[in-house]
Each structure stands twice: as C-alpha cells, then as structure tokens.
Design a protein that fits this description.
By secondary structure, the protein is of the alpha/beta class. It is 14% helix and 22% strand. It contains 4 helices and 11 strands; from the N terminus they run ββαβββαβαββββαβ. It has a 6-stranded parallel sheet with strand order 2-5-1-6-7-8, with helices on both faces. A hairpin with a 2-residue loop joins strand 3 and strand 4 (104-109). The longest helix has 14 residues, at 132-145.
Length: 282
C-alpha cells in the first residue's frame, strides 16, 4: 500500500495512541524506530518513559505495572519472552525494509497501524505469570495517560464470570471512559466455549490468515536406533539444495486425536517412511 499515511485505511493510525498491556517491549527493535513520523505525541498525552529506555515519536510510553516480587525489574523491557514486542509491533510496528522469513517472502514489513504511537504497560513477571492486580493497574494507567486504544493479548486458562475477570472489569472501566479495548480470543478451539475474553464490551479478535503459503519438506530416514527415527531437516532458505534431491514420494498425513496420537507421538511401527509435506501460512 506504500508508506504514505493517505494510502492506508484510517491514515495508518496517524495520531492514534495504542496502549499495549503485555510482557513489555524490546526498545531496540527496528519496528520501533520513528523514521517518517511527523507527529509528536498529542499535547494531552500524560505518559512517560524510563530514562534507561528509548522513547521517540513512535514509542511514547513505557511502564512496568506488575507487583514487585523477588524478580522485580523496574524497566518495562521485554527481555524474557518477546511476546510483548510481537504484539506491539503487529499492532503498530513502523516500516522495516529487506525482511524475510528465512529467505522467503522478502519485502517491507509493518504493523496494522504503522503511523500510530505506542505506549507499553508491562504486567508479567519473568516467570510468565501476569498478576490480575497488575493488569487492572495497567488498564487504569493507560486510560489516565490518554490512550485511544488498549490492546491486550493475554487470556486465562479458565473462563471466569464477568464480575471475576480482571480483563473484563478493566476493559469495562476503559470502555466507560471512551477507550476502545481490543483483546485476543485465546489459543484454544475450535471446540464450543473455547473463546476467551468474550465480554460484549470488548472487541475480541481471533486468528487470521492470508492467501499464500510457504512450502517446506522434511525427509525422514532411519531408524537411528531400535526405538527412534532420526529426521534430516532442510532449512527453508536452502532452496537450491532441494533441487538436487530426487523427487519426493507423497504419503498421507496422519490426523489422530486418540491418546498419544493427539500429541504427534507415534510408535515406531506407525511411522511413515518417505517425505512428509506440510503447508502453513506465515
């Protein structure tokens, strides 16, 4: 669509502040540079950044909101998981040129709203636990700072009632203040009642896909010993090497849900010799 804001729906989020509640941010990520940004943060913006972390026209706020514990870190840096950086840059990452997935799909990458500002609220400990008190504080802080949208990609293992859900309660309070709250539908499904964060005042978003696929070939050889097969893997970037291999023989994939088969744990006698072809989206 090009890099001009007028080429994007909604001007690419120009002037919008997105508060991301998650694991923090890698402030060195190229998607967080502010090249091409003309707008300073709006005058009503009340957020701030830690002096030890980078702030610019793109990244305008960083706060660590989780409950102080033995592994307390004052910075909102995403040093353990990368999940917070992934979520934030998917929403509003700036343009980065010459990127690819192991040599495939090369081009320019950006988030959905590349001209939006980002404010980060870290609510998760190093262990990966995200205390509900920290989530509620982050909602309140994001609203008080002046954000327009709150994006949150966290979900509980169970489905709490509306009055017991920290995300539902925090999102309801934000909605009352005119802030749009976008949440994830969780990683479960497609069974009934598997959607998380389904409160009617939240915008709950599930996974999407695109109209392309990346092929990959796995060649199985062996057995390496009496009980296990060994697999020789081919890197996706090593396309030329595949041209020198004999044509693969296609075999049917096994789709099972019974017992150990649901975890792709097949006994040796059930393994298929030959090539396994799998197609998945980016």
């Amino acid at each position: 669509m090009g890099k001009s804001p007028d080429k994007w729906p909604g001007n690419g989020g120009q002037g919008v502040i997105i508060g991301v509640i998650d694991h923090g941010i890698d402030d060195t990520h190229l998607s967080l540079e502010d090249a091409g940004f003309m707008d300073m943060p709006p005058p009503f913006w009340k957020g701030s950044c830690h002096p030890a972390m980078k702030c610019n026209k793109k990244l305008i706020g960083e706060k660590n909101m989780y409950v102080p514990d033995d592994d307390f870190i004052t910075l909102a840096r995403d040093t353990e998981h990368g999940h917070g950086t992934h979520v934030a840059t998917t929403a509003a990452g700036n343009f980065v040129t010459n990127v690819s997935i192991n040599g495939l799909a090369s081009g320019t990458a950006s988030g959905v709203a590349p001209y939006a500002h980002l404010a980060i609220y870290k609510v998760c400990r190093k262990s990966g636990d995200c205390p509900e008190a920290a989530v509620l504080r982050a909602f309140d802080k994001a609203v008080a700072d002046g954000g327009h949208v709150i994006s949150l990609s966290l979900a509980t293992s169970n489905i709490p009632t509306y009055d017991q859900s920290s995300i539902g309660i925090g999102g309801f309070n934000a909605m009352q203040q005119g802030v749009h709250v976008v949440v994830c539908a969780g990683n479960r499904g497609p069974a009934a009642s598997s959607v998380r964060n389904a409160e009617p005042w939240l915008l709950t978003v599930g996974a999407g896909t695109v109209d392309r696929y990346f092929p990959g070939t796995v060649y199985l050889v062996g057995p390496a010993d009496d009980t296990h097969d060994s697999a020789v893997d081919e890197g996706l970037a090593d396309r030329m090497k595949l041209l020198t291999l004999p044509p693969p023989t296609f075999k049917p994939l096994l789709y099972r849900t019974k017992d150990h088969h649901g975890y792709c744990a097949y006994p040796f006698e059930e393994m298929i010799a030959g090539a396994v072809h799998r197609f998945r989206g980016p």
